[in-house]
Each structure stands twice: as C-alpha cells, then as structure tokens.
C-alpha cells in the first residue's frame, strides 16, 4: 500500500454507491443546471478573468464603475480599482425600487418563541436610523465599531448601519467571555460598542451587558456603549458612557444619505475561530468581498425569489457575515434568523421552525448534524420538512456517515447537499458543488468555485502526485480574499504567503481524486505520520464515526519509537451506548476494515465530550497537548466549554 491511496475514488457509504448526481428535477430549475456549463464558466473565470468579472460584477450596483480589475503585488491584492459602491446600499436601497420592497428580508424567531419579520423597506428604515445614531455618536468612515449582540435582527441592522457609514465593524460572538471581548476590542481599537441587555440561550439570559462592563474595566478606549433592550432585565449602566438605543434613536430620523466608498474600503475585521492557535483579526474590504458573497449565495445555494434561506451560523462567525447578512441581502433574498439553542426546549426545535416557516434552504455545520444524530432520528422524522429543497454544510470536513444521515433524515433523499470549504480568510465559499450541476461525493467539497484556483502541493511546494495528500494552496488572488491581519502585516505575510512561495497557504491538508474532486483531510498541523504514511485526521475520524455506536471522534498522534507516530482516538458514544474494552477492540477492527491496518488506533479513549471552539470545531491541538504533555498550555480563549478539558483529563487519567 502506498501512502494515501487507501480510499477509492468514490468510497461507498454504508454499503451504498458514493456518488450522488444532482436530482434532475432540481437541475432543470437551477441557475446552473449542468456540469458543462459550470466547466465553461470556470474556465472563463481562470483564463479570461477580465471578461468573466466584467460580466459578473454587474451583480452589484456601483456608484462609479471600476476601471482596473486587479493590482497584485504579493501579498497585497487590490480588486476593482477605481470603483465606488456602498455595501449597505447594495443590500438594501437598491431592492426598494421594485417588487422586493415589501418582501421579507429577515424572518426572525426568538428562543422564547416570538416571531418578527422585517421587509426590505422596514430593514432599510431601521438601518438608516441606526446609521444616523452612530453618526451622532461620532462614528465616521474608517472608525471601528465592536458589535456584541445575540442573534437578533439588530445584529444585522448594526452591521449594515456601520457599512453605510464606511465604519468597519468587528462582530464578537455573543457567547464569548468578557476576556475574549476585551482582547478583540483592544486589538481593533474601537471607540464604540453595541450590545444588548441580554439574549436567550437554553431558557437563560446571557449577561451580555454585565460582560461588557467587565471587559471595559480599566479600558478607557470605548467612549460609548449603545445598548439594545432585548430581555427587559435591569442591567448596570454607566451614566456617561452607556445609552439605551431605544431612547437615543429618533423616530423621524429615517433618511440617511449613502456615501459610496472605494472598492478597497475596509468593511470589517473578524477574528478566526482559534482552532489552530490564537485567533487572527482578518480584514475584509468592500467590493471583492461583497461580490464573492453575492455570487456564491446565488449559485451555490441556487437562491430564487421565493426561497427562505436559513444559515444557522451566528453572525459572530464569518459564515454569519457572508451567508446570513451580506450574501443573501445583496441578492435580495429572504433570510431566517434564530436566536437560541438548537435543542431548546426540545431537540426538535430546528425541525419545528423549518416546518412552521417553510424554510427552503438549510445551511449548517457537521457538529450540529452529529449532535442531531446523537439525539436520535425520532426527533426529526415526525416533522414535515417537505419545504426543504437544498442543504448545506460548512466548518469541518463532513463525515460521510453524517452526510448520509443529513441527506436521508433531513433532506428525505430529495435535496442536494452543498459541502462548502472555505475560511474566514477567504471571505466566501471556495470549493463546493453547484447543486444543479455537480455530482456529490459524501465527504468531498468537490470542485472550485469560479475564479478559485486551488492545488495540492508537497512540502517543497511542488505539485503533489494525483491522489496524494498534501497542502492545499490557492494559486492566484480571488476577489473576496482577506486583505490582511489587522495591525500585523508581518504575520499576514508569514502565515499565508511565505510557507510556500508565491501562493496562498490555507493551513489545510487535502488530496484531489482523479475526477478533480478535493477531499479536505484536516489541518496540516494535525496530519499524522505513521510509518512514513501521511494520514489526515478526517479520514480516520470518519471511519470511527461510521461505527453505529460512535457519535464523534478526534484523532491525534503520539510519538512512537517504532512508527514515528501512533494514533490516539478520542471517542464519544451515541446516547444509550456504554464504553467497554470489547468496544475498543471492535472500533480498532472497524477502522482497520475501513481504511487499513496502518491506521489501527493504538489507544482509544472514551470521553463524554470533546473540546471544541465556540464555533463547534474540534480542537485537536488541545488533545495532542494532553496526550503528549499531560497538560494544556496553549490558547484556550475560544474553547466552548472549559470544563471539558478537566473532565477529559480525568477520564483519560491525566493530570491537568
Ligand atoms: P484558526 O484559523 O484560528 O485556527 P479556524 O481555521 O477554525 O481557526 P475558520 O476560518 O472559522 O477558523 O475555519 C476555517 C477552517 O475550517 C478551514 O481552514 C478548514 O480547516 C475548516 N473547514 C471549513 N469548511 C470546511 C469544509 N466544508 N470541509 C472541510 N473543512 C472545512
Ligand atoms: Mg484557520
């Protein structure tokens, strides 16, 4: 067996054929309905970018048309030079001219159950009033504004109000602690902070305002805190600094002139999830980012006027920026927003909302799908999900087992699944199937989107042999790419542009099969080297998760004198399953059968939960530290639940 060729081109899933062509009924109505058309457009986007982007950029409304497509001097790319536009205008004003004016822009459900709908006209009105309020508080173009809100319509309103003024926002996920909030607001140098008196999560109120007060202790840089009244609960307000938005906002202050900004005007700063280390403050600018979002939303999610699109990500993550706010609103779609926990009051909350609002497109993360699998299909089966026509996945490689469950139990075998590979840095989805054109292979994000030029290279930067695992790089700039790490040009160059000369380094491992499909095999830092074979974590974990008793798995390497590295697998079990020595043997055998004896885990450790980032990704680096050093010293600020580490250490018999 040579390295990395242990999987066939389309591995079967549960004994079933591993290729899912787009359903014909879907293709016949899709924006792009066959793979030849995709290939033709893709070729054009790479070979004649001027023509391609010349046409596609008409998706946006420009105050001044751009003159030069790209100025590229590594690592600095500037797109659509000479062009001027306003992101908020593109997401709002331009939809008010025609039949979209009274269409729902946002349909929102709070965790306690209330529903609010904002039409484009109403959203525009709110955004204008907020923009005026911000301007009265001294916010001008270029000023950073931190947004720390629950998933309520005001989160989108705040973002668009900032965009209207050309003030880059930095949204901090409402689940983050005061320390994480402080780090971010200090790093981006904001003077204004927008928050709420709380938000609902699992029936409790998240004390956002209290956390803000804590974060601002000893920090004088924030001059004004604007507070949304969400829960009505009394919160401590500091007289000089803090203001209730409802008291400050002026009812008759509806108009707000739009200023067009240059294409490269900064739109936002957003911190990465922190899966591989300390989060980085990623800077995105206006035109390229917005265009990337608009096009991917339209083509990858095949959005039509009548769709109700639900991207379940919090606006605190890039997925929420691009596919809750900027992408869908730029193309005039209706989005659904939900405030709370997926299992509140019961594990069928998602399915009930899809049923009630007749949601047509659902875009969520593998971690959520695996959680639903663990709850059991009895929660999803009774619900009427016939409105759904498309499903999406993002955040981690999706295990084929989870893909199939999603396809059968949620999509009822009808809906294409769009597995989108991308990063905070890439701004919009990069590798993903076009639902009406690309045949899906569970576990593969498939083919590149227009203008995206990915490749797999070896450690020296030479093209990897077909089928071989290597580093995923992007060989040319794309419009929605990051423009830097805020305040750290050296880090920008070092992290992304110097590891492999001349190309963008993603930090992810992948391989490409003979059909050209990309398979993300995990983080480069996590790649295992067993007896000279490079093994991605994703494949071993998928093999483990395909065992009927396993809910989730994380695999890390432990130094081994013979093999270089030996595999240690952390496993959580499905509800009702018990850990035992014989199950360990069973699992070893199962992995061996699925992939080969080389990946037989040396150790299997049962855990009650795995350490994850706040965005739900497994943090293998912490497990690796635990296995190797018996303790954890790495950055844990984005850890979802700090108690998992102590629990894990106890479960695996290590001191912390
Ligand atoms: P940090 O960069 O701080 O370590 P992070 O990489 O988790 O955190 P994000 O930008 O939120 O921060 O996540 C991007 C990463 O998520 C990708 O590099 C990839 O590893 C993973 N990812 C996202 N979508 C997919 C997907 N569809 N398939 C496989 N991996 C994915
Ligand atoms: Mg990353």
From TrEMBL:
SUPFAM superfamilies membership: Acetyl-CoA synthetase-like (SSF56801)
UniProt: CoA binding residues: 201-204, 319, 531
UniProt superkingdom: Bacteria
Residues bound to Mg(2+): 545, 547, 550
Region (Disordered): 1-22
Cofactor dependency: Mg(2+)
EC number(s) per entry: 6.2.1.1
Gene3D superfamilies tied to this protein: 3.30.300.30, N-terminal domain of ligase-like
Pfam family, one: AMP-binding
One annotated Gene Ontology cellular component of this protein: cytosol
N6-acetyllysine: residues carrying this PTM: 617
Single annotated GO MF: ATP binding
Transmembrane segments: none
First-tier enzyme category under EC: ligase
GO biological process: acetyl-CoA biosynthetic process from acetate
Post-translational modification: Acetylated. Deacetylation by the SIR2-homolog deacetylase activates the enzyme.
Start and end residues of each AMP-dependent synthetase/ligase domain: 101-485
Listed InterPro entries: Ac_CoA_lig (IPR011904), ACAS_N (IPR032387), AMP-bd_C (IPR025110), AMP-bd_C_sf (IPR045851), AMP-binding_CS (IPR020845), AMP-dep_synth/lig_dom (IPR000873), ANL_N_sf (IPR042099)
Reactions accelerated catalytically: acetate + ATP + CoA = acetyl-CoA + AMP + diphosphate
Residues reported in the UniProt entry to bind ATP: 395-397, 419-424, 508, 523, 534
Entry similarity comment: Belongs to the ATP-dependent AMP-binding enzyme family.
Role played: Catalyzes the conversion of acetate into acetyl-CoA (AcCoA), an essential intermediate at the junction of anabolic and catabolic pathways. AcsA undergoes a two-step reaction. In the first half reaction, AcsA combines acetate with ATP to form acetyl-adenylate (AcAMP) intermediate. In the second half reaction, it can then transfer the acetyl group from AcAMP to the sulfhydryl group of CoA, forming the product AcCoA.
NCBIfam families: Ac_CoA_lig_AcsA, PRK00174.1
Protein name: Acetyl-coenzyme A synthetase
Lineage of the species this protein comes from: Bacteria, Pseudomonadati, Verrucomicrobiota, Methylacidimicrobium
